[in-house]
Amino acid sequence: MLKIDPARLMNDLEHLRSFGATGTGVVRLSLSPVDMDARRWLAQRMNEAGLDVSIDGVGNVFGRSRNDGPALLIGSHTDTQPTGGWLDGALGVIYGLEIARALGECDATRHLAVDVASWIDEEGTFSGFLGSRSFVGEPVDEAIVSARNREGVLLGDALAQAGIADAPRARIDRARHKAYMEPHIEQGGRLEAHGHAIGVVTTIVGIRELRLRFTGQRNHAGTTPMSIRRDAGAGLVAFITRMNEAFERLADADTVWTVGRIDLDPGSFSVVPGSADMYLQFRDADAQRLTAMEAALAELIREFNAQEKVSVEIRDIEPPEEPVTMDAALQAHLADAAEALAPGQWERMPSGASHDAQVLAHHLPACMLFVPSIGGVSHDFIEDTAEAHIVLGCEVAACAAAEILQRMRG
Q1: Model pLDDT, residue 403
Q2: Quick one: pLDDT at residue 77?
Q3: How confident is the model at residue 360, as a pLDDT?
Q4: Do residues 65 and 132 both lie within one domain?
Q5: Same domain, 92 and 127
Q6: Residue 238 included in any domain
Q7: Looking at residues 204-208, what average pLDDT do you find?
Q8: Residue-range definition of the domain harbouring residue 105
Q9: Same-domain status, 144 and 34
Q10: Which pLDDT score is estimated for 73?
Q11: Do 190 and 234 have their domain in common?
Q12: What is residue 244's predicted lDDT score, i.e. its pLDDT?
């Protein structure tokens, strides 16, 4: 079994936590000054671990092993949400760093190659998955020109301010990079509820994000009888009830849907809403179920428009994301390591959240490992994971990484 250094692992995680520390959480938005400070510190730690390091032209921190390939790429992200937790993707980046060090400290594995990445803007401050998309060669130049953060700052200006706009961009080396591993906190409560310490991810769910616009007639709330109202807000609420019933008939235990926002026009006590917008997201690991949910929604809209005084139309907000299956052979290596180090304390499970792994998986065999989130909380200052689970997760990932690399070399 490959031996990691738990104290070194935790010290690095705690030090990274200090960049943007806010109470128990972290505010480290992509390309902010504190984010760039964290990236420069991380680059220094990678260099001390014997990796050749660059901060590339979009902000990725990339550490390349000096060993010849084939190489296993391990990474995640160190940017956070506006009210972020201290672990989130940072866990996977520091795992990669610690695994690279542990491999180099063992005579049996010091010849193996692990490259380590901290992808920029997984959280979408400017453009979601910017770093991993750039790495695999997807077009990001349009985003650099046009994407803005919440303060209206252009992505291109932020890169220039960070001093990296003209730096070369890291690119996948298909002759070298043979697989990708992304460790992460679960961001949910399934592992904790089941009393398990490790999750081996099977699939990253697909996502649909839609806006439903309900159109009625704006009118005076005091003088318009209920019998003749065309209340867009009331129509929206009634539609949600029907939608919930239809989706429940199609769902399994992992299917989720959320009405995350409702806007009423004009939004006044004294005016019957003339229009209402509902922002809907649903997620599932089964592409056929997602298609069935789309069809059920379309049928509900058809029936609603035929029967009600209020009409509804639908449009996409974001292009659909399809489910992405993790590589079966890599899953098996993670499962073997989990069973060896935590017998009976692990499970296979889908990821209900999106990750850079779904971008990399279209270009490399990819896998993910989860450790529990206390209380199932993430993207919040109180996000946390027990130290014992953090260390165990790194031990499992390290042992799986060593086995994956040994198999690659035959």
Answers
A1: 98
A2: 98
A3: 98
A4: yes
A5: yes
A6: yes
A7: 97
A8: 6-205+323-408
A9: yes
A10: 98
A11: no
A12: 98
pLDDT tens digits for 5-45?
Answer: 999 999 999 999 999 999 999 999 999 999 999 999 999 99
Count CB atoms within 10 A of the CB of residue 248: 10
Instruction: Render pLDDT for 68-80 as a digit per residue (tens, 0 to 9).
Output: 989 999 999 999 9
pLDDT digits (tens, 9 = 90+) for 286-339: 999 999 999 999 999 999 999 999 999 999 888 899 999 999 999 999 999 999
Number of domains in the chain: 2
- Whether 265 and 283 map to the same domain: the answer is yes
Judge whether 140 lies within some domain.
yes
Query: HEC profile for the chain?
Result: CCCCCHHHHHHHHHHHHCCCEECCEECCCCCCHHHHHHHHHHHHHHHHCCEEEEECCCCCEEEEECCCCCEEEEEEECCCCCCECCCCCHHHHHHHHHHHHHHHCCCCCCCCEEEEEEECCCCCCCCCCHHHHHHCCCCCHHHHHHCECCCCCEHHHHHHHHCCCCCCCCCCCCCCEEEEEEEEECCCCHHHHHCCCEEEEEEECEEEEEEEEEECCCEECCCCCHHHCCCHHHHHHHHHHHHHHHHHHHCCCCCEEEEEEEEEECCCCCEECCEEEEEEEEEECCHHHHHHHHHHHHHHHHHHHHHCCCEEEEEECCCCECCEECCHHHHHHHHHHHHHHCCCCEEEEEECCCCCHHHHCCCCCEEEEEECCHHHCCCCCCCCCCHHHHHHHHHHHHHHHHHHHHHHCC
Same domain, 328 and 389: yes
Q: Has residue 1 been placed in a domain? A: no
Residue at a domain's end among 299, 316, 333: 316
**Residue 410 binned pLDDT confidence (cut-offs 50, 70, 90):** confident
Residues 330 and 368 in one domain: yes
What is the C-alpha separation between 19 and 84, in angstroms, rounded?
A: 12
Are 71 and 176 in the same domain?
A: yes
pLDDT at position 69: 84
